Records
---
Amino acid sequence: MIQLNRRDVMTAGAALAAVPLIGAGTAEPGWEKLPTEAYPGKRDDISFADPLHGWYGTGKGDLFRTTDGGASWAKVASKPGTFIRALGFVDANTGFIGNVGTDYYPGVTDTTPLYRTDDGGVTWTPAELGGKTIVGVCAIDVLKTQRIYQGKLEPRVVVHAAGRVGGPTGLLRSTDGGKSWSVSDLTAQAGMILDIKFFDEQTGLIFASTSRDAASTEGLILRTVDGGKSWTPVYKSGRAAELIWKASFVNAKVGYATVQSYDPARAQQLIVKTVDGGKSWTELPMVMEAKARQFGIGFIDEQRGWVGTMVGGFETKDGGKTFAPAPVARAANKFRVVADGKKRHVYAIGTEVQRLTIG
């Protein structure tokens, strides 16, 4: 029976040391390894509120902050027993910190799935869930939008947090910037939830798996048009031992997601692509390499993007039709694109924290 290797998924520690890095050698001009504290495995998420202010977390419960665009980092908080799995910041002060939860990884004792900070990550307050909860968070989506109120347009922040790897699954939703939350049990819809994306208050996608059983689960994408009250499957991989891990959208129509396979006999790695806002998806072959299990994905436009895998990074310049090795470190779990005037900074976080500046 195929089993989901938790160390591969979350820490990518000893397993990574034994895997050759495809594409290693001469670094692509512009890619930088940022000066961060050493960590035995992969870090899972990085979030920027603006070109200067950013944060990343670790499975040890450490939160690091930069105020100079990643040139330097300082530890601003440490909460042993918490596994910082996901981050989402509204501005330089206010953000949300997702914890993967207990009963999955050794050493995780914190049962609080989501925290809020209003001082740049120094202090954390548990999200007020009204007595309900979910087990853990693997992804946070922060949507800045507007609404008409008494004849005026006013800003509105909608936040979703969902999880988790290994299940069980649930969704947290706030339409008032995190002051109040609704809690939804999604165990009937998905076995695991790994990522989430909303385009407006009503329309969104969940990237998931059909089952909690790694041997039988299929990759799954769900879509809602009613703010998460109901979900419709829009993609199933049809192959066992697969998950949809992470997604990246360049606009409301065009997006990509990684298909993570745990089938040792499967060498062909795939990504999926949508051009209609997630209503339908097309599979694209990425690379023929059994060890290249996928993690994060990030695109700066409809043509150019990167995928992080267990053996390093891959880049496409033609919208996913072809891929070539790229000097992105192993197990890059999340890519973030940050606009900075005419420039764009692409951040990749995994066994290293890296930055590519374009423009």
---
Amino acid sequence: MRDVSDVAETPQPLLLDDLMPWSVAPLRLGRSWVMGPDPASLRARWDAVTRAEGPEREALFAPTRQRTPHTSVAALPGQRTATTRFAGEAGRCPEPVRVLHGAFDEQWLIPDHRLIDTARPELWRVADPGHQLFAVEQGYVPGAAGPALLASALLPDGRSPAGRPGRIRPLYRRPGGQEPNLAPGLTAHLAARYGHAVAPKDVLAWALAAALPSPAGPVVPLPADPRVWLSGVGAGHRLLAVLVRGAQGADRPRLPGGQRPYVRAATPPRPDSLAYDGAESALLLGATGRISPVPVEAWNFEVGGVRVLERWFEERTAEPTGALEAIGPRGWPQEWNSELLELVTVLALYAQAAAGRPEPGSYDVLGRADLHAAGVLPVPGSARRPASVLDHHEEGPGGQFALL
């Protein structure tokens, strides 16, 4: 992906921040043991902490300024977890939830607010598996390869493999696909310019196809030509279908017959390396593991200059950083092979769909003056804040209802 500085643009290019004004910073866990690649390990870590007492529990918990075992905190929206102080916790582990870790890695998280320094409750409040989509900005690294913007149906942690993490922008400000997180009047203005209806998801699709990296966040040039818009939106919807991995009615990612990767030789219990055999289009795990065919586009796929497959492998094989992090699978679970096969498929299909994106600088764009004249810009301050939530209760510290 070329840097926006390499592209002839308007003096003040449109940013994603102009189009999707409400954004949330990435999650900050504070302790790495609450997230991992398999849920069974998270439950075992919880049990190890809750069986410990006194100073041992304190040490295993890994206190920070934001969280200690004695911190009083509200439950995360939508999660049935205790709000009593963790120091007295003796119950079962809350059911881990699937989240997007970084760019493409789906992992598991214990959804207990007492364990997470900064969980961003406003994101959990609008999470909705049937409707919500999250645009996830990727950390800016000058000259680095990879997309500037990705999307997820899972709640993302917003971490970037390299560079400063970007922002998370929900497509809707309320559950149920209600109140699009778009600049007021944007879709109506674009519909008038292009001569047909523009849905909120179309704006996200265009952003996925056209976003360019910049230090200020992704730049999203809007085309003046309706034909360019339609072509880019089509490419963006294909990218989105790959990224959501079967959620919200989309098909699971699947390469055509003959191109689908398979495990050709069993992965050793503890593979210590990951390599690529270009001549055989094979992914090599340790001394004996082998997956093929793996397109070179999947192996070379980078985000922020970091190879996605290598980062995924490191997340599962790196030396643990603490006693609880050391609690994990004894070998290489079969599920990880399945997840790796899907990740290869996702990266290959994404690379294919990305070939249809509009070429930067090849089309005329709508300037900021156009959106100012239409009253779309400047975005009102209220659109940059979370929507008020008045239709449900949430449990505050100690079992009291939280006022929202």
---
Amino acid sequence: MATEVKAPVLPESVADGTIATWHKKVGDAVKRDENLLDLETDKVVLEVPSPVDGVIKEIKFKEGDTVTSSQVVAIIEEGAVAAAPAPAAKSAADALPPGARFTAITEGVNPADVDGTGRRGAVTKEDIVNFARNGGAGKAGGARPEERVPMTRIRKRIAERLMESKNSTAMLTTFNEVDLSKVSAARKELQDEFVKAHGIKLGFMSFFVKAAANALQRFPLVNASIDGDDIIYHGYSDISIAVSTEKGLVTPVLRNVERMSFADIEKTIADYAKKARDGKLSLEELQGGTFTVTNGGTFGSLLSTPIINPPQSAILGMHAIKERPIAQNGQVVIAPMMYLALSYDHRIIDGKDSVQFLVDIKNQLENPGRMLFGL
């Protein structure tokens, strides 16, 4: 019996998808729920599983083709058995994505020698760079390679949104710094009990996200968005968390953070991070958001001006924690300090509100007890 394989049902905000990779070919045997292909949309890569056990009888679209919601992409002969064994797999170099392949050439690395940390053990660009830096290989002598590759749909959409943000918002950035001594002390004191009670570590991110949610309740304009000539006020804090992946930056959303506990925040962030690494984030998890928190400090950034994620009106940038001398009660002490940046849309958020909002977050983080009492 012939069974149709259809593209996933896409939400209204996603018109179509591009077939990024076929993992099977005509004549291959497949198992029910085995991934057949990766479908790349503007926001996320979706897996398309086999609905039945059988053999692929027909593939209707090749890699790079565009398909729409619920469109038939393949036919499977249910219950059939593959006639012949599959041919030899691609070489290690052929299996690499373009960016990683180019890096392997420039670094003089044989991909077969590198342990992959990407999706399904794939070798990533970062794996090759780390392998080369750790003495695994040196640069190819005299090589001056170039490679032209098309942008992925996700990367193109990121570029479009960045230009949209730049051209459609009156963006300004205000800065402050925060002493994280008390947050660090609280984490150190409560870490073991927190892990024992909740099965996850207490990180810095939950403090910042919770402080932002509290401040958003007190400064509703920072949590608002512009729709034409109207301002939409949101009575909830749906905070997008910027997560870096191999294919680009994604921003899954923590919903109703004002009602979430620290443990809820940490668990959800950890779940999103794992899904992002494995390419398992759903479109629903990436939709919406009234405010964004991004942490460039994980990559060593000391200071930056984050770009607003439209239609949101503001974004909070975290940075690297550095021990610096500061004045405290007339004495010079060494404290773990972080620069904070708040980029905001000046069309609806005045300078006073943006500064007071950032000071509010600073005050909460320097006195974590304030969060417990909504101060």
---
Amino acid sequence: MAGTFELYADAKGEYRWRLKASNGQVIATGGQGYASKANARAGIESVKKNAGDAEVTEV
């Protein structure tokens, strides 16, 4: 089973997202609150589009 993006409103009314693995553990977050649900969804779409081919670098 693939991971799941959860989109939710926080206590301040900002929208946030988190990515959960199939075992329920949070493996990524948007790291910020978004003023609108549409902007939070755009953040999710950006991760989906860009993360698949992202390189791993050691720093």
